């Protein structure tokens, strides 16, 4: 296990980057704690896999250093970093049996036969492949092969870190839930440092102690699922986390009020003069329809998703989503929306601004 330090780290795929826009991974300075489980979350192309490949040694950064504990591994080969990595698509030895695939990392390091057999049986039980141990990998389905890859990544107990690059892409939905739960259980049992790359917020929020949200090559927030939901530090976090995501509305801020199209929204805190693109952000869970209070809206449609209703509305060209209870009655004259002031965030140029009491 290892504490992973990213020191002034950045990467460009161009030989001579001329500006920040030329960097696929913009400058990072972060310490990821020993034994924690992190998820790297973001849309495709945001830099998640680039960062993971730099940590694993498959890619050399354009600048900066990577430290495992206090050891500089920036230029160390992947084999010297003592990590296990599972990729998006299965990487298995087709001519070997499932048993031999799982045992390979342990045998390669000279582990005793008794320990190898014990560990292989444990992992096979975890991934649900006990009945297939003596079958050749050739001819197995893609999701079965990916389970072998996952098992081979988890079989060693002495690794510095376990790295997962969207490992459940080819796994069927039911098995995804089981394997994610087992990965979490493995982390709780052995305390490996784990980094899990995904674009799926459900995977990230259910797996990780802390989620690292990336956008446009930059880490925009590291936090617990609760922190990402309640206080998104960037409008992208608010938009990307949640279903539907946070409502973002252009506004003018004066003290503890936000003025939008001639109406105003009460704020729980006061703010000084703000420059740039100023907006407020509020989760649909903290919005409610009313006949008399709040911003005037035009309801376009109501979606009943079983547990609750999602009200899709329009406010002078700005989309607003409201979550109502499954049993809530929504009448034709409920054409205003109000927000819980304690859960309204203020943003300037997409970054959250802290107010004063």
Task: Note the run of SSEs as H and E.
Answer: EEEHEEEHHHEHEHEEHHEEEEEEEEEEEE
Mean pLDDT: 90
How far is the first residue's CA from the last residue's CA?
42 Å
The tally of structural domains comes to 2
Low-confidence stretches: none
Q: Supply the helix-strand structural class.
A: alpha+beta
* CATH topology tier name of the largest domain: Rossmann fold
Broad CATH class of the largest domain = Alpha Beta
Largest pleated sheet: 6 strands, mixed
Dominant shape: globular
Number of helices: 8
What's the architecture of the largest domain in CATH terms? 3-Layer(aba) Sandwich
Radius of gyration: 24 Å
Strand content: 25-35%
CATH superfamily of the largest domain: P-loop containing nucleotide triphosphate hydrolases
Number of strands: 22
Widest sheet, order of strands: 6-7-8-3-9-10
Helix fraction, binned, reads: 10-25%
Oligomer: single chain
Write the layout of secondary structure elements.
Elements: E1 4-11, E2 25-32, E3 37-41, H1 48-56, E4 63-68, E5 71-72, E6 83-86, H2 98-108, H3 113-126, H4 142-154, E7 161-165, H5 173-190, E8 193-198, H6 201-207, E9 210-215, E10 218-223, H7 225-230, H8 235-240, E11 247-250, E12 252-260, E13 263-271, E14 278-282, E15 287-290, E16 295-296, E17 298-304, E18 308-315, E19 318-325, E20 336-339, E21 345-348, E22 351-353
Parallel strand pairs: 3-8, 3-9, 6-7, 7-8
Antiparallel strand pairs: 1-2, 1-4, 4-5, 9-10, 11-14, 12-13, 14-21, 15-20, 16-20, 17-18, 18-19, 21-22
Helix pairs in contact: 2-3, 2-4, 3-4
């Amino acid at each position: 296990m290892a504490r992973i330090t990213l020191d002034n780290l950045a990467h460009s795929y161009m030989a001579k980057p001329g500006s920040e826009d030329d960097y696929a991974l913009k400058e990072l300075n972060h310490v990821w704690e020993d034994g924690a489980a992190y998820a790297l979350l973001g849309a495709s192309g945001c830099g998640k896999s680039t960062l993971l490949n730099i940590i694993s040694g498959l890619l050399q950064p354009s600048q900066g250093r990577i430290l495992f504990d206090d050891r500089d591994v920036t230029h160390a080969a992947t084999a010297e970093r003592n990590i296990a990595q599972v990729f998006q698509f299965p990487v298995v030895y087709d001519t070997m049996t499932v048993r031999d695939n799982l045992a390979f990392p342990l045998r390669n390091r000279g582990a005793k036969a008794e320990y190898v057999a014990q560990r292989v049986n444990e992992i096979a039980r975890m991934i649900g492949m006990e009945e297939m141990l003596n079958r050749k990998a050739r001819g197995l389905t893609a999701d079965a092969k990916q389970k072998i890859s996952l098992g081979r990544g988890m079989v060693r107990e002495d690794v510095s870190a376990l790295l997962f690059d969207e490992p459940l892409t080819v796994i069927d939905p039911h098995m995804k839930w089981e394997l994610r739960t087992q990965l979490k259980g493995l982390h709780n049992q052995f305390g490996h440092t784990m980094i899990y790359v995904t674009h799926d917020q459900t995977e990230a929020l259910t797996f990780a102690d802390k989620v690292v949200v990336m956008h446009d090559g930059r880490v925009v927030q590291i936090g617990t699922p609760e922190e990402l939901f309640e206080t998104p530090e960037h409008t992208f976090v608010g938009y990307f986390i949640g279903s539907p995501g946070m409502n973002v509305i252009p506004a003018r801020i004066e003290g503890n009020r936000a003025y939008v199209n001639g109406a105003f929204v009460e704020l729980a805190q006061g703010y000084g003069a703000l420059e740039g693109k100023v907006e407020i952000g509020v989760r649909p869970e903290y919005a409610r329809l009313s006949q008399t209070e709040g911003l005037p809206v035009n309801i376009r449609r109501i979606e009943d998703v079983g547990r609750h209703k999602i009200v899709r509305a329009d406010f002078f060209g700005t989309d607003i989503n409201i979550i109502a209870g499954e049993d809530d009655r929504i009448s034709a004259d409920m054409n205003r929306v109000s927000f819980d002031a304690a859960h309204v965030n203020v943003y300037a140029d997409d970054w959250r601004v802290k107010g004063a009491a």
